[in-house]
Amino acid sequence: MIRVLVPTDFSDHSYNALSYAHMLFQEVAVEFTLFNAYEASALQLVGNKSPLRLGTIYKSLKVKSLEALKTLKKDIDARNEIKNHTYVFQTYEGHLRDGVDAMSKNDFDFIIIGSKGATGLKEIFIGSVTQSIVSLHQEIPLLIVPEKANFRVPDNIGFATDFTRDYAKEELAPLLTLTDLWKSTVRMVEVYDVPGLSPAQKTHLQHLEMLLMDVNYRFHVIPEFSSLENCINAFNNELEIDLMVLIDYPKNFFERLMRENVIKKMTFHTTLPFLILPGRN
Question: At which of 107, 122, 146 does a domain end?
Fold first, then answer.
C-alpha cells in the first residue's frame, strides 16, 4: 500500500491536488492522510492572553478543523468511486510548514500539495506556502500540483538533470514506481549552459541508463533559458511532458529557478506538476 500525506486548507487548489492524487494512484491501494494545520488569528488572540481562554480558542479551532476534514471526506466519497483508497485525518496546531515537518517523520511514500501563487502576483511560480514546504528539503518525495493542472495520463515523464552527480537506485524509486504504474516513457532532459558532457557527466549518464534499463527512456538537451516561461514551454509543448521530476540536489536547476531574483522576473503560471525527489546527502 502507498501512503500519501495531503496537506489541505480546504481551498480549490488543495482539492485539485487531492483529485490529481486520486487519478495518479487510481490503480493501486493508497492510504491518504488528509492533513490540516490551524492557527489562531491575530484578532482571536487580542485580549485573550489567559491560558484558559487561549486553550478554549485552540480547542474550538481543532474541532472546526476535524469537522472540515470529515466534510471533505464526505465530498470525496460522493465523487470518488475508487474503492482501494482509504483516508485518515490529522490536525496540527501551528503553521503548515511546521506541521508538514513534524508529519514527515512518519513513513509516507509521497507528500502531495496544491500550489497557488500569491493573489494578484502572477510572477510567482509557486505560492509562498508551497515554497516553504520545498525549503524543508524533506526525505519524502514532494509532488507539487499547480492550481490549474488537470490530470493527464503520464505517458511522458520528464526527468530534468545535468548529470553532474551520480545516481542511486533508492533516489529513483518513486520515479520507477510511476513508470511501472503507467508504462511511461522517461524523457531525460539536460538543461545546459555549456553544450556537451564532461567525462564525469558521461559516466553518470551511463549509470543512469543502467538504472533505467527496464524503462522506456529518451534523452533530450535544451539550453538553460533566461525565462521560466520559455523553459516550461519547451517541457510542455516540444517534449509533451505530463509530469516533471527533479532530484533535490543543492544548486540544481530547479533551485536556481526558485531564487528570489529570478522569481521576480517570472510571468508564467505553469500547469505542469513537479515531483521533487530527495537527493542523497
Answer: 146
CATH code of the domain covering residue 175: 3.40.50
Alpha carbon distance, N-terminus to C-terminus of the chain = 27
Both 24 and 128 in one domain: the answer is yes
Phi, psi of 174 (to 5 degrees): -65, -40
Same domain, yes or no, for 100 and 165?
no
In a domain, 164, yes or no: yes
Q: Which amino acid does the sequence have at 1?
A: M
Q: Give the neighbor-by-neighbor strand order of the sheet with 30-38.
A: 85-93, 30-38, 2-7, 110-115, 142-146, 274-278, 243-248, 156-161, 185-192, 216-223
Which band of pLDDT confidence, cut at 50, 70 and 90, is reported for residue 232? low
CA 161 to chain centre: 17
At residue 5, the 3 state secondary structure works out as: strand
62 within 8 A of 38, measured Cβ to Cβ: yes
Give a yes or no: residue 278 inside a domain.
no
Total structural domains in the chain?
A: 2
Question: Comparing 135 with 278, which gets the higher pLDDT?
Answer: 278
Determine the pLDDT at residue 17.
93
- The per-residue pLDDT for 88 is 93
Cβ density class 1-12: b for 16+ within 10 Å, e for less: ebebbbbbeeee
What does the mean pLDDT of the chain come to? 78
Last residue of a domain, one of 123, 146, 169: 146
Confidence of residue 155 (pLDDT cuts 50, 70, 90): very high
Is the CB of residue 2 less than 8 Å from the CB of residue 178? no
Q: What range does the domain containing 191 cover?
A: 156-272
